[in-house]
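Subject: sequence -> structure tokens, single chain

Hey, anyone have a minute? Need the predicted structure for the following. Not urgent.
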Amino acid sequence: MKKLIILLVMAFGIQAVNAQQDGLFGEVPDHTPMMNDTWETINKLMYKVTHKDNQTIYTPHFPDELKAIDKKTVTLPGYLVPMNGGRDHDTFMLSVLPIMQCMFCGQGDIPPMVEIFMKKGKKVRFTEEPIKIRGVVRLNANTQEGNSEIQVLDAELVQ
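Reply:
Had a minute. Here:
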């Protein structure tokens, strides 16, 4: 009887540990970043830090390698990160990691992301699976015009 109780306690303990690891949303799979040469270039974005009136100001700095892809058509694999509610999106962020592997959850550095603007009339249905987007890069030094320093305009979903 004593051995049976020990086995039951151990089994419940293992289940409790597994439940804690799975969290509220079930098991979060470990995803491989969708890095390619274009993402590596995008990841070179840097910021010039200045101070004015007790405020820290971050101004985007685009190295020459990043400037070289401005106004060029690129293809990026990644995960859709919605900025608005709903199933279909014409503007969203694209990340090398899925939203369930959020950068605020202790999974490492902030992953590179770009803001996607789909071609007029085109939308992408939300999915947790990777997608592939093709469009024209726009380096955006003024984030008053969109949310991101790097944008992909006139984007299309690549099958």
